[in-house]
Structures are given as structure tokens and as C-alpha cells.
Design a protein that fits this description.
about 425 residues; alpha/beta; Rossmann fold; N-(1-d-carboxylethyl)-l-norvaline Dehydrogenase, domain 2; 8-stranded mixed β-sheet; 17 helices
Length: about 425
């Protein structure tokens, strides 16, 4: 099939590359010429394991190209996939202006019976207004569907090739059938719903996962007050088949491109629909407050920061990505400096991106070598669980002089007894 993918961010590029791998003729479209030039040269403008190789295979086969021309990408496309961003305002209202702009640009180029698929995360009930907007700019017959993505940064290629499910929110049986055939080679269960259910299902999935993180953080707080260990509590509740052992991540709260945004948007939508102060409102508030609560706790643990050398390990919001959206490093490093500490910051991928945002203020050094970042540090903060960090032997960084060194394990990835054996005082979350 001929397919156009509008938007060459994280979702768009992965989607385009995977569809090309499945044998379809795919044109990725973006209005940013420099980004298109890089992609056509096989260069991915962000870090995602396995994506660059997949991109080069698609381009070498002639199945995948990138362009800034809507005419070139859309005119012959049987399926047009919109995968542009939908950022939210501080109060949580979804900004669909990029979706609307894409709709306005592709509508005049649509061929007869083209299917326009909205993969962007959009508020439930938006398709009727999109239909009206397209109809104002074309005379051909077209079809609309919503197909939310459930990709995880760091494993997006595998998530797309082997998804847990494919959700098709279609207005008509015919378009649902075409999209089902398109995705059948992936071998995943195909769930066909109304567009509204598909759209709300994306919000519900992300908000529930965020809720698990918020819940276990509340349990971690109770653990610290009662002498319990949150990891032991997780082993107890995880043995219950109704609950399961997965996705319990006590720490500084949830971050990234989806969870904070989607919870805020559900909270906003709930208020707009007259549902009042829902669970989503409180979940968002708890997550916003969480970092400052942990920082205050850490300040007591280490007896203040003034004059101390701190190694901050892991700067992206999660491992295997250089994405900094809601990354804890962006608020932590400035707070450490304000409290009188000096900082050595390490990350395998995200240092250039952090420099663009935080710059290079006095008191901060960026280290590409983990050993150099930790050498001489009074306090080590294992902020994000990159493999390079959680497999590192911190015992090799022992200092000659006798002094108390603190190890702050923000993700409970280390064995406390081992950390103590390395010469540190161990501080986890809820332990």
C-alpha cells in the first residue's frame, strides 16, 4: 500500500520505518527541511535503540522516503497517518493545533476513498470536527479512524513490531477491515472500537500506569514511617494474580512525554465535563509535589548540600532515550547548585540536550565517563537506571581520606548491603 505519515517525531519515524519494513511504500512528511534532510541521510534526530538501522534498511530498499511536500506524500496515499504532537497547556487542555494544521494541508491532496488515521493523542470526540474540516477542503470520499499508539521510549521499535494489541477506532466497517489487514502481519490481537473508545483508551492506559507509580510512592512514604521496606511490600502485593508484580516503580514520580501530559488532560477534561475533583486531579497534584518532598528528605539524609560534591547519574527521564521531558535532572541540578553543592553530571546519551536547556553554569561539569563523574564525590545520586549505571562497580571509586559518602538510590536499583560495602551510606525510596 501507499502510506503517508505526517510528523517525523518519535511516533512518526518509528511508524514509518516499521510499515516500510512490512513492505509498504511509505512517505514520511515534515515541514522542517533540515529534519527531512537528516532522515533521508539515515540520521535519526533523537536517540531510540534500533531505529537508525531500521531506517537505513527501509531507505535502501526504496520503500521509505521523507519529504516536506504534502502533494508528493499524500496524493497517491491510500492511508494517511497523522502523528504530530499534541502538547498540553499548564492547566491540561490538549493543544490540537498541529493536528488541525496537518488536516488543512493534507485535505486538498486526498485521493478518493483515502483513510485518514489519527495516531496523535487527541481528546475523545474530536473526529466529527475533523471530518467537517476536511470536507470543506476536498470533494472526494474519505474515511476517518483513530489508532492510538502505546509505544515506550527506549523500546519503541520492538513495541511496534510486536505490540500487545492494535487498537482501531473506526467509523466504518470497511476502513476497519483495511486497517486490520494492514496490521495483521504484526500478529497482535486487533481490537476494533468506536473512535471515542480508542481515544479514551489511550488516556486510560497511561493514566492507570501513572496511578500505579503514584500509589506505590504513597506506600513508600508509609514504609519510611513504619520501618517497612517497599520492595518487600511489592513482593507481597505482586504475588496476587489480580495485581501482578510488574510496573511498581517507587521514586521521584512519573515523567516523560506521555504520563504527565495524559493525566493532566484527563484531569482537565473531567472538570470541563462537570465531574469535579476526580482521581486524576489528585494524581497530578501528588506527582507535581513528589520531587520537592524527596529533595527535602534527601537534604536531611545528607545533612545539607553546602560545600559537597555531588554526582548526578542519569539525566534523561528514563533509560535508553535522550528525551528530557519531565526529566528529574532538570529541576535537581539547579536546586543542588542553589543549595551550595557542586555537580558532576553523567548520562550515556542526553548530555548535549541537557546543555541546551541548563547551559553550563558555574559549579556544573558534564562527564561522559561514569568513573570520572563519581570520583571524589561526597554524594552519588543514581537518578535513572541506565544499564551503565546499575552495573557499575562503585567500589572502584573509593577515596583515600576518611569521610562519610552518601548514595541516593532514586529507583531502588541497588542492593543496600553492597552499597554499604562500597563505603557509602545507603538511602533508597521507602526502604
Amino acid at each position: 500500500m501507499q502510506i503517508a505519515v505526517v510528523g517525523t517525531g518519535f511516533v512518526g519515524v518509528v511508524t514509518a520505518a516499521v510499515l516500510a519494513k512490512l513492505g509498504h511504500q511509505v512517505a514520511g512528511l515534515d515541514i522542517d527541511q533540515s529534519k527531512v534532510d537528516k532522515l533521508n541521510a539515515g540520521v535519526v534526530p533523537f536517540y531510540e535503540p534500533g531505529l537508525e538501522d531500521l531506517l537505513k534498511v527501509g531507505e535502501a530498499s526504496g520503500k521509505l522516503t521523507f519529504t516536506t511536500s504534502y502533494s508528493d506524500a499524500v496524493a497517491n496515499a491510500q492511508i494517511c497517518i497523522i502523528a504530530v504532537g499534541t502538547p498540553s497547556s499548564p492547566e491540561g487542555k490538549a493543544d490540537t493545533s498541529f493536528v488541525l494544521s496537518a488536516i488543512d494541508s493534507l485535505a486538498p491532496e486526498l485521493q478518493d476513498d483515502a483513510i485518514v488515521v489519527v495516531k496523535s493523542t487527541v481528546p475523545p470526540g474530536i473526529l466529527p470536527s475533523l471530518r467537517e474540516r476536511i470536507a470543506q477542503k476536498t470533494t472526494v470520499q474519505f474515511h476517518l479512524a483513530s489508532m492510538p499508539e502505546f509505544l515506550r521510549e527506549g523500546t519503541a521499535v520492538a513495541d511496534t513490531l510486536k505490540p500487545d494489541r492494535v487498537v482501531i477506532g473506526a467509523e466504518a466497517e470497511w476502513s476497519a477491515g483495511v486497517l486490520s489487514e494492514l496490521h495483521k502481519p504484526l500478529g497482535a490481537p486487533i481490537i476494533i472500537t468506536s473512535p471515542e473508545s480508542a481515544q479514551l483508551g489511550k488516556y486510560a492506559a497511561n493514566s492507570y500506569l501513572a496511578l500505579r507509580i503514584g500509589f506505590i510512592n504513597q506506600i513508600a512514604d508509609l514504609c519510611e514511617k513504619t520501618g517497612a521496606d517497599v520492595q518487600e511490600v511489592i513482593s507481597i502485593i505482586g504475588a496476587d494474580a489480580r495485581i501482578g508484580p510488574h510496573y511498581w516503580y517507587p521514586g521521584l514520580g512519573y515523567g516523560g512525554s506521555c504520563f504527565p501530559k495524559d493525566v493532566r488532560e484527563l484531569a482537565y477534561a473531567s472538570k470541563q465535563l462537570g465531574l469535579g475533583e476526580t482521581l486524576f486531579v489528585k494524581l497530578n497534584e501528588l506527582n507535581v509535589e513528589r520531587p520537592q518532598e524527596i529533595f527535602a528528605h534527601w537534604t536531611t539524609d545528607v545533612d545539607g548540600w553546602a560545600g559537597k560534591a555531588v554526582a548526578v547519574l542519569g539525566l534523561s527521564f528514563k533509560p535508553n532515550t535522550n528525551d528530557l521531558r519531565e526529566a528529574p535532572s532538570l529541576w535537581l541540578i539547579p536546586q543542588l547548585l542553589a543549595a551550595g553543592a557542586t555537580v558532576k553530571a553523567y548520562d550515556p546519551q542526553a548530555i548535549p540536550e541537557v546543555k541546551q536547556i541548563l547551559g553550563t553554569p558555574d559549579g556544573v561539569e558534564y562527564e561522559g565517563d561514569l568513573g570520572q563523574a563519581v570520583a571524589g564525590a561526597d554524594i552519588v545520586i543514581a537518578l535513572v537506571e541506565w544499564k551503565e549505571i546499575i552495573t557499575f562497580n562503585f567500589g572502584d571509586t573509593a577515596v583515600a581520606e576518611k569521610k562519610q559518602r552518601h548514595f541516593l538510590d532514586a529507583r531502588n536499583q541497588f542492593v543496600p548491603e553492597q552499597v554499604v560495602g562500597w563505603g557509602f551510606s545507603y538511602h533508597g525510596i521507602g526502604r
